[in-house]
């Protein structure tokens, strides 16, 4: 395989660098200095600049006004966004639009995608389930009722929920398929034979849909989405098999790209600081213990990058292999979740007391790194999932 980026992918990354160059990570108040969210809304001015640069339609086809690029190009742009902690729903919006394009009805795609590509309609995804630890597709039930689908359940920590116009919600149909009420006790039977997953596009302000405010470790405003007898038109529901699995893998791989961008900027900050900070008449970067720790973190970032591009390439190409793309995504998650934590912890340690100063941007990078680590989940769980995949797909 060839991991050389195409001219189009490189052009997207260069355009992103230009858009994100003026963004100052320390311009937003620190979450430790406010009792609520750091801001009511995401950065709309930056969002407009991304739209003007055609970076909100990277994955969309030409008929929808897009560039027709792939997950690799999106990850290149996301890496640039994380370096400046860009406060925009770029990942969630792009992934939701791509899922509608790949799996949605023609009616929904024709109506939604051109507006999404221009940034006029903002999308996000409910991807964390009821508690953040259970599968998102099991947190909401969906049943067909004539020309509508009826949704009930709760999704937690929906990113940028208050700023989005619509939320793409995974839901399961119950053991009997569409219209089933589940078991004999009237409850659903998640994961039972016949149960399947659908994706419903729910407007933020919709009858039967209520948001409750949550605050992330970054100080950003999240939303708990509560659905009670919420009716969605049938053409706003994606029923094709594999849609949620594909969307989930794209979201995860994009999160790994965010972790890589954040970690890269933090390591550069650390190199700059340790090269200038002197003790005993010498820069501390020349001390063996400091150099070894920095080298270890460079190895982490190199592994994060290699596994990220492998996962993004598999999602983009659909290339056959001994293991499904989920295996490469699991490996990328393991390195990203562990690596981004180690990078920021080492940075805090090598900065000393200066790293804990909330007036210094490293504080915000640490908070965002913790949020990404929690979003990716524990490495042990991904290792277990990878083991299951290896057991199910033994090498030839």
From TrEMBL:
It is an enzyme of class 1 (oxidoreductase). Residues 175-194 are annotated as: Disordered. SUPFAM superfamilies: Acyl-CoA dehydrogenase C-terminal domain-like (SSF47203), Acyl-CoA dehydrogenase NM domain-like (SSF56645). Pfam families: Acyl-CoA_dh_1 (PF00441), Acyl-CoA_dh_N (PF02771). Residues 254-383 form the Acyl-CoA dehydrogenase/oxidase C-terminal domain. Its EC number is 1.-.-.-. Its cofactor is FAD. Keywords: FAD, Flavoprotein, Oxidoreductase. Belongs to the acyl-CoA dehydrogenase family. PANTHER family: ACYL-COA DEHYDROGENASE, ACYL-COA DEHYDROGENASE FADE28. This is Acyl-CoA dehydrogenase family protein.
């Amino acid at each position: 395989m060839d991991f050389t980026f195409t001219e189009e992918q490189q052009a997207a990354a260069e355009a992103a660098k230009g858009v994100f160059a003026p963004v100052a990570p320390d311009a937003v108040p620190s979450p430790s200095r406010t009792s609520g969210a750091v801001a009511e809304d995401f950065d709309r001015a930056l969002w407009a600049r991304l739209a003007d640069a055609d970076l909100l339609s990277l994955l969309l086809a030409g008929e929808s006004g897009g560039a027709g690029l792939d997950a690799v190009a999106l990850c290149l742009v996301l890496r640039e966004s994380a370096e400046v902690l860009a406060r925009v729903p770029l990942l969630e919006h792009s992934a939701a639009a791509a899922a509608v394009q790949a799996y949605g009805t023609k009616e929904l795609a024709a109506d939604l995608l051109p507006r999404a590509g221009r940034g006029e309609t903002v999308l996000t995804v409910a991807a964390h389930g009821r508690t953040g630890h259970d599968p998102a597709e099991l947190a909401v039930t969906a049943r067909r009722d004539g020309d509508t689908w009826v949704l009930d359940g709760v999704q937690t920590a929906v990113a940028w929920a208050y700023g989005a116009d619509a939320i793409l919600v995974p839901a399961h149909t119950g053991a009997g398929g569409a219209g089933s009420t589940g078991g004999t006790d009237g409850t659903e039977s998640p994961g039972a034979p016949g149960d399947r997953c659908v994706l419903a596009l729910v407007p933020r302000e919709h009858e039967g849909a209520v948001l409750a405010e949550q605050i992330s470790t970054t100080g950003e405003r999240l939303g708990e989405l509560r659905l009670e007898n919420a009716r969605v038109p049938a053409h706003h529901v994606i029923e094709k098999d594999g849609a949620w699995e594909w969307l989930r893998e794209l979201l995860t791989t994009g999160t790994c790209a965010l972790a890589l961008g954040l970690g890269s900027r933090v390591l550069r900050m650390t190199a700059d600081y340790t090269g200038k900070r002197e003790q005993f008449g010498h820069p501390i970067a020349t001390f063996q213990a400091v150099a070894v720790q920095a080298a270890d973190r460079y190895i982490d970032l190199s592994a994060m990058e290699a596994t990220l591009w492998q996962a993004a390439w598999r999602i983009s190409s659909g290339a056959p292999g001994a293991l499904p793309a989920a295996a490469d995504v699991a490996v990328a998650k393991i390195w990203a979740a562990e690596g981004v934590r180690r990078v920021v912890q080492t940075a805090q340690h090598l900065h000393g007391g200066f790293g804990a100063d909330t007036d210094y941007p490293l504080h915000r990078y640490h908070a965002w790194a913790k949020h990404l680590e929690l979003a990716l989940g524990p490495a042990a769980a991904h290792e277990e999932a990878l083991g299951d995949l290896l057991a199910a797909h033994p090498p030839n």
